[in-house]
TrEMBL record:
Protein name as it appears in the record: GabT
Pfam families, sorted: Aminotran_3
Cofactor: pyridoxal 5'-phosphate
Database matches in InterPro entries: 4NH2But_aminotransferase_bac, Aminotrans_3, Aminotrans_3_PPA_site, Class-III_PLP-dep_AT, PyrdxlP-dep_Trfase, PyrdxlP-dep_Trfase_major, PyrdxlP-dep_Trfase_small
EC number: 2.6.1.19, 2.6.1.22
Amino acid sequence: MTENRSDYYQKLRNKNVPQGPANITPAYIAKASGATMTDLEGKEYIDFAGGIGVNNVGHAHPKVVAAIKDQADKFIHTCFHVGMYESYVDLAAKLNELVPGDFPKMTMFANAGAEAVENAVKIARYATKRPAVIAMENGFHGRTLLTMSLTSKVKPYKFGFGPFAPEVYRIPYAYCYRCPFGLKYPNCGVACADYLEDFFISNVAAESTAAIIAEPIQGEGGFVTPPPEYFPKLAAICKKYGIALIIDEVQSGAGRTGKFLAIEHWNVEPDIVTMAKSLGGGMPLSAITGRKEFMEAPHIGGLGGTYSGNPISCAAALAVLEILFEDKLLERSRELGEILQKRFSDLQSKFEIIGEVRGKGPMLGMELVKDRETKEPATELTKKLTQICFDKGLILLSCGNFGNVIRTLMPFVITDAQLDKGLSILEESLHELTK
């Protein structure tokens, strides 16, 4: 029997590419469009992964493709530091308008989410003249030295890669389903936010803290979604001590929760916001938007990079914003969220393995447990579930510290028929898993 192309490339991959860059599925993709991907053998998959949150507007959206081609015909690279271009400045102006905050804002660009976080911390440290940064348990901010230090989960992200960057501290996040204080919401009074006051006494002084960084909905950490009181209280504490509040919207932004940025659900105005993933429509791009006084603090030449804000990536991002707002994909995002919330709630009523459904808009997660009382994580069963779904033609990702949370990151352009088919596959797979 003739060897198929996927098997051939897997052997070639094993010979030439190290094991470190892990592969979630064995699929080799030949084509992707909208909310589907087709492998080298012609098998089509419904995509609930979205390139790990990159394809909110869909694979190869015609407007994004046209913007990329148009810019590539003009020029591909000059380096913004050498020869400036319109798309960089136009995109910065648009993001300054979109990011919440009734104050002047400025924006700079980088290549990836980790770079955005690195720059946000650099800016906060420079502006406050303080060294310390406080991050959250379960948080994920990247794989570079500083962002890996900020990231909570040890394996696979940090194991064996130390020593880590200094002056990084960690506090519990508002993970109500697994309250770190042993309390039960709503009676806890959001103790995890109030804990900061004690933390300043026993771990790092507020006067030494440049920034607190948090994801509004934790991505890799398990789609952990805090209660309504959490971020307003956290923001108030930051304001009290002159600490910059950095909100990491790399996975939750660009409409993923039904609003352009997830932090809008809490009516909080961050000092600095980081964005990436779906902002570029598939092109490598990240943004750092913040208060003008913060962003202007670093000296000339203190920030930047050769490829930062590449003209093709900026053109793609401008197309993404047009699609989200003018083509009403934000409305579609909210519609998807309503459908998913209902379907996931129905699944929770049918399957004891689903301990909690959480999230906002179409950024929803299901935490799978062996027992609802003990909340013992169903890690191996979650892994098996994603494999069953894959075999049936649905690409689905897990996340969380225990790898027991199913998450949805499907493109907003997914059709009702594709969505229903994907959810039906998920339900069939849960039946097969739990029978």
